Amino acid sequence: MIEFIQEIFSYRFLGNAALAAVLSGIACGIIGTYIVSRRLVFMSGGITHASFGGIGIAYYLGANPLVGALIFAVCSAIGIELFSRKGRISEDAATGILWSVGMSVGIIFVFLTPGYAPNLMSFLFGNILLVDRVNLLWLCALDAGLLLLLGLCYRAIVYTAFDREFAATQRLPVAMIGYAMMILIAITIVLNIKTMGIVLLMSLLTMPAVIAGTMTRDYKRITIWSCVIGSAATLVGLYVSYVSNVPSGAAAIAVLAVAYGLTKATLWMMRKCNGNRAIISRE
Amino acid sequence: MELLRIQNLAVGYPDEVPIVSGIDLTVHDSDYIGVIGPNGGGKTTFIRTLTGALRPLGGTIEYHSDGLRTGYLPQTKSIDRNFPISVVDVVLSGLSARKGVFGRYGHTDRERAGELLKEIGIGRLARRTIGALSGGELQRVLLCRALISDPQLLILDEPTTFVDNRFEKELYELLAELNRRMAIIMVSHDLGTISRYVKSIVCINRCFHYHPSNIITPEQLQEYDCPIQLISHGPVPHTVLSPHRGCACCEPDKQENR
To answer: What structural domains and CATH numbers belong to chain B?
Structure first.
């Protein structure tokens, strides 16, 4: 462990990876709490996978793949919000369509790209060791933006997420908040593709918030705990990857799964102990 | 004092045929209006338009007071009880109109929320999450949310659904007390009970009829054809209104033939 910590400070790529783990954990913790609380997990999965379409087209055109992913993700997010708002098609169906169409567009364009076929594995499963200075700056900006937004209008966001209709009667800009949050979900997804990959990212968005939700039912505390759990799990995943040479993203998800199991077991044992204590005191 | 005037209002969902149109109604500060009608008749759509959650499809709603303070108690079935939010935060959300997007919620606001919860008899629940509440407790919390802004007009959409008889009676008595300082518009299926408290009645069943009183005669009881709960025991006076011409609730055969 000490050797690992020393190498984080010795090797830039490992230092970048450790920093990316913390920054990704914070961004995914904040957005993940919103996604889980508003039950937008499937929809977020749709946006994540639809962004692959943008990656494929960007490769074909010789542009930056993450820019293509960002355009696709933001358009998908706005599209889903628009569909569900107008009620023409259900949110589920719109998500399902965007999910598969995005993936198929991505695959078609990657195969149409002449010459060397790009290594898609790093986009599908992520590689935190490839995170560079530019990625880190974008993640820093994202975290700062999310924290600022929460600091300024935490209650408006939570109240709108809790009861959209009542918030509208209170003249809160419900539609604007809804679209802004969807765009932030899309940006968070795209900026974290490099860390976790399209396939694994949903776990970092949902599992920390679910684990935190078993410990507290307060939105603010769930957000804080999600950030801590997400960052810690990604760091531990990086360490597991360093020790056993397995992909860091998959290791982080395994760590989260173990953490979830341990949390549930601890809570179950605590409830059982409290129950026994109550029976003894009654007797 | 006149609070709002509705003229030739059409309500419904965007890009669809209005569910109810030609609504004319003036609400005064001491009004207590009961809104009745069968499911699907347009009661909730009317209420949602009145609260600003839906845009009118036609006509106007004029507010005769600068920044009319409105309290709204929606149906509890619209509430996500798994959402991680505490009772006190739900109550504080009733101040959103005053605070706006960037408003700060101070100690005074929290104290006011706590006092209100105590007044309604659920002060001990302030720190609980809404998922841990019973139907009646949740209804009380939502009532506190509607009242925290000290509204001039209180709008309630079926407030007695999923609550026990004791709370129902307490609620109606509390509303009668509140009506001394605010106008109330209440949607209910339970005409038999609300007629004891309301001052006037609106019938909505794809059409809109305003009845300026709650007095009825036993003869009219049989003529009223809306599927509204009328069963009650004891000396509770019933309200049944005179039939409307050309209205689906009173002339169903005529509507079917159209």
So the answer is: 2-68+152-257 (3.40.50.300), 80-151 (no CATH)
